[in-house]
Design goal:
0% strand; single chain; 87 residues
Length: 87
């Protein structure tokens, strides 16, 4: 009977660990995706500045702009360009 209790306790511990890992991994995946998209946003802003220098157009490279481009993608780039022309 004691062996059965030990096996059940071990199974319960494994299930609890699996559930905790799944609960914790979701926010970590989201943060990792946001960091990757922010890095891509910096790259896109760098390319826009590199090409835009020939035409006298540049966007400020800062974390806010990179986050906007990272979260919203191409529409974020378009919004930043439009804001630069309007302001």
């Amino acid at each position: 009977m004691e062996t059965l209790n030990t096996v059940l306790l071990l199974a319960l511990a494994v299930i609890v660990v699996i559930v905790l890992v799944r609960i914790i991994s979701a926010p970590i995946k989201l943060i990792f995706k946001l960091l990757i998209n922010t890095a891509i946003g910096f790259g896109i802003l760098f390319l826009i500045n590199l090409i835009g220098q020939n035409f006298g157009f540049t966007l400020e490279m800062n974390l806010l702009h990179a986050l906007i481009v990272g979260i919203f993608g191409i529409p974020g780039v378009v919004v930043l360009i439009l804001l630069q022309f309007l302001l």
